[in-house]
Amino acid sequence: MTHMTPPTAVYPLAPLPASALDGVRRRRITALMLDLMFVTVLSVGLWALLGLLSFGLLWFILPPLFPFVAFFYNGLTVSGWRMATPGMRAMDLEMRLVSGDRVPFLYAAVHAVLFYLCWSFPPIFLFSLLSADKRCLHDMLAGVIVLRRV
């Protein structure tokens, strides 16, 4: 008979203090609204700048810039040293890998893509109500967790 090792904890951070998850859902919604405003302003500004640089010739053929800006906005800010988008920082949140490490650019960018894909079926967001650690389905797929800054 072989010796079986017990399963390891999903979170090396576990058990998480209650304060790390206190009000995370509400704060994430507010952070999302702030970040959507930031990405919209950046997208419109980039669209206007590219249009002006081309003397208006590109305004009608420029692709929608919002998805590209959102991809890099989330990837660069979450993988940065503050581990949060500006909206998340305003709401005192940070994103980490479930191992507790800093989120690399690719994980952060994939997380953003999964988040925007979840908007095609909004009831998916209700999954966080069933999750003890308040993670959404796209958080689980990307291997990240959003916590209060401590």
Helix proportion: 40-55%
Largest sheet, if any? Answer: 2 strands, antiparallel
Quick one: how many beta strands? 2
- Beta-strand percentage? 5-15%
Q: Spell out the helices and strands N to C.
A: HHHHEHHE
Strand order of the largest sheet: 1-2
Quaternary organization: single chain
Shape category: elongated
Low-confidence stretches: 4-10
- Class by SSE composition: mainly alpha
What gap, in angstroms, lies between the N and C termini?
A: 46 Å
Account of the 3D structure:
- The protein has helices at 18-21, 24-53, 66-78, 86-90, 105-118, 137-142, and strands at 93-97, 144-148.
- It is mainly alpha-helical and 150 residues long.
- The protein has a two-stranded antiparallel ribbon with strand order 1-2.
- The longest helix has 30 residues, at 24-53.
- The termini are far apart.
Would you summarize the structure shown here?
The chain is mainly alpha-helical. The protein has helices at 18-21, 24-53, 66-78, 86-90, 105-118, 137-142, and strands at residues 93-97, 144-148. A two-stranded antiparallel ribbon has the order 1-2.
Strands, helices and their partners?
Elements: H1 18-21, H2 24-53, H3 66-78, H4 86-90, E1 93-97, H5 105-118, H6 137-142, E2 144-148
Antiparallel strand pairs: 1-2
Label this structure with key terms:
150 residues; mainly alpha; two-stranded antiparallel sheet; 6 helices; 2 strands; 48% helix; elongated
